[in-house]
Amino acid sequence: MTDLPPTPATKPARPYFSSGPCAKPPGWSADRLAADSLGRSHRSKIGKQRLQYCIDLMRELLNLPDTHRIGIVPGSDTGAFEMAMWTMLGARPVTALAWESFGEGWVTDAVKQLKIDPTVVRADYGQLPDLTAIDWRHDVLFTWNGTTSGVRVPDAGFIPDDREGLSFADATSGVFAYDIDWAKIDVATFSWQKVLGGEGGHGVLILGPRAVERLESYTPAWPLPKVFRLVSKGKLAEGVFKGETINTPSMLAVEDAIFSLEWAKSLGENGLIARSDANAAALDAIVEARDWLGHLAIDPATRSKTSVCLTVEGADEALIKKMAALLEREGAAYDVAGYRDAPAGLRIWCGATVDTADIEALGPWLDWAYATAKAG
After folding, report:
1. Could you give the CA distance from residue 41 to residue 284 in angstroms, rounded to a whole number?
2. Residue 225 carries which DSSP code?
3. Angle, alpha carbons 190-195-198 (nearest 5°)
4. 4: confidence class by pLDDT, cuts 50, 70, 90
5. Distance in angstroms (rounded) separating the CA atoms of residues 20 and 335
6. pTM value?
7. Is residue 352 over pLDDT 80?
8. Binning pLDDT at 50, 70 and 90, where does residue 2 land?
9. For residue 210, what are the CA distances in angstroms to 65, 70, 164, 291?
């Protein structure tokens, strides 16, 4: 009979390692959310003030220049990116980069829904495509941080200043965890549910001046649903970027996002980046100390610091499910199985709302779950 390791004595205090929705910020509780806007119209004075305050906090924390607009839109990151695609693509050729499931989703939408026949540059899970092969006369779609593969772009250096096309960054697992050169980004999208630990359902759309120019000078050939319409009478609907949302937002979700943003501000400049870095380093130390664990993303320069995807020696989907179930049963780690379309493995969220001590406490529990699942 195989000797099993003892059950670890110490559990992570907050065993929330889901890659979205992610762990709430330390100290969060529902009764700490401001409530004056709840039950009020989002068109009321207080509703618009809180939405604008949320936008202002995001701009401050992201060091976003005044040249770029921020809008709160429906449908989480997916809705925001779809909005960008449907309103701006078709004006010139398109290149789509795909190295995990969400990038492939944008390829599918471009091909099957918009029917624009993009050039597709692919890489397998764990790899990054050749970024030097991009034709920047095209509009270019890419994920900044591949949540389901744990692979990210190293920085924005691959985007040329003299590009003719627009850069579209699905940055939902990257915003707030990396220092982004906004001069290189024409369109970016994300949701509060990732690095901020906010709630799902709302997306954030960031538009640079070149994207605004495209919106005001180009009309797509296909009809646009009401929730996608960013232009009125040939001009950008500026109200969307001043808190006047296209559809009714959840003010509870907005207040939750404000709580997270105020917490992030209290950490000081780059505080969210520092916490994500520390968490990723702690998990990397766990991996380095175990010969049965590895990184799906081999190259550290393109390895995610937020959605870290791990390989497990000899594992198949059944073993991973068993490990995840054991950890959840013990209250030691929740939602750590890899994404369904990714190679069988674990995925540990290391974003800023996770405490490094909880990552460190996870190591012995991974040993226990692996041994127990294999023996079972």
Report:
1. 46
2. -
3. 80
4. confident
5. 9
6. 0.96
7. yes
8. low
9. 14, 14, 10, 48
